[in-house]
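Feature request, filed as a ticket because there's no other form

It would be nice if the structure record came with a short human-readable summary line next to the C-alpha cells. Right now we just get the raw output. Example of a typical job, pasted below so the devs can see what we mean:
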Amino acid sequence: MATTYETAGGFAIQFIDGNGARRTVRLGKMTRKAAATVAVHIEALASARIGGAAPPRETAIWLAGLGDVLRDRIARVGLCEPRTVATLQRFADEFPDSRVDWSRSTRAQFRLAMNDAVAEFGADRRLDTIRPADGDRLRAKLGARLSVATARKRCRYVKQLLAHAVRLGVIERNPLADLVTANVNDRGRLRYIPAGDVLRVADGLSGEPRLLLLLARFAGLRIPSEPYALTWDCVDFGSETIRVYAPKTNRTRTIPMTAIVRDALTAQFATAPTGEPRVFLRSFVVPYVRRLTEAAIHRAGLEPWPKLYHNLRASFATDCARYLPANAATAILGHARAVAAEHYWTTDASDFRALHNALQQAAESTRIDAHGKIDDDRKPRKFTNETALERKGGKSKVGDAGFEPATSCVSSRRSSQLS
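Raw output as currently delivered:
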C-alpha cells in the first residue's frame, strides 16, 4: 500500500516494490488532495508491476498526461518506462529508415522538407509541442519563395512524419492533419518547346549536358533519374530502341530511338572509357548542368522556360499524342493517359491552325450562298436515263438496259415493269 507523508519540500509517497524494497517518490509542492490522487495511481502501478499485468485504464491515461518531471521520478523507481523525448531532428533522421519503398530522389525531397521544418521549428522542438498554427506558418513561409505545388509537397512530408509519430504513439494526434497539402497542377508553367529551339540550344552544349537535353526533348526521359540509370546494354543501335528503367515507377519500358538521339548516343559511346557500362558518368551535378543549359539558352537568343526538363519531356509527350494513338503515346512516356492530359499535353498555334484548316475544308465541301441555298455546282443531281448527248439534241446509242447485257431474268422483270 502506498503511504503519503509531508516533508519540508512538499509531499512524498512510499511504497513496497516487487523485491520488497521500500521506494520513495517525492512529489514536491502540491495540495494534499492532489498528493492522495497520485498515491492511488502509484499504488496501482506498483500492483501491476508485481503481478505482471497492465495498469488500469484510468492510471494509464493519467500516466500519459503527466509532466516530464513527475514522470521521470516515477520512472526512476521502476513503475513505468522512461519517456522518450521525440525531437523533430531526431525523429526526422530515423523516419526514412522505415520507408524501404522510397527511392533516392524521394529521400532527397524528404530531406529538403525536413531542412525547412527544422529551420522554422528548431532541431530540438518536441513533436508534442507542434501546433496547427505552426503548420500554417510553415506553409506561408514556403509559399513566399516556392511554387504552390512545391510548398505543399514539402508540407506533405512534414505531415507524413507527424502521422508516423501518431502511429508509434509518440504523439496523440497529428497537428497538421487539417493542413491542405493536396497536389496542385500549375498548368500556367507548362510550355511547349519547339524542336528547332532545342536544337539551337544543343549547339551550344557538349558532352553529358547536351545528351541530357536531347534525351529529355526527343526521347521523353525523366531527368535525371532515367538517364542516370542507363547502361550501354540498354541501348540497341541495331533495332534503334532504348530500354529505359524508371526509378520513379520501378518499371522498364522500351522506346524508339529517333535519329537525333541515335547520333547523340553514338557520339557519347565513341568517347566513353573502354569497358564503362554507364552511359552517364555524372561528371557534373544536376544544378550545375541546369546552369550550363540556361546559359546556352541565353546564347541561343531564347528566354529560359520554367520547369526546364519537365517541359522538354512534356513537349515530346505532346508530339507523340499528335501523331500516335493514345495507348502508344503513353506507353513510350511511361505514364497513364490521365496523367499525360493533366501534366504533359499542351496546345499551341499549330493545333489551332490545323483546326481552322479542317473547319475551312468542311465548309468548302458544302458551300452555301448568301440566301442559304446550296450552290448549283454542289446541288445533288437527279439521275435519269437521259444522257448528255440527248440533252444536246442528239440520240443516245445506249438503250434502257445500259451498257451491261441483260440476263434473262432481268429482261423479263424489266418487260413486266414496262407493261
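Something like this underneath would help us a lot:
The first strand starts at residue 3 and ends at 7.
Residues 32-51 form the longest helix (20 residues).
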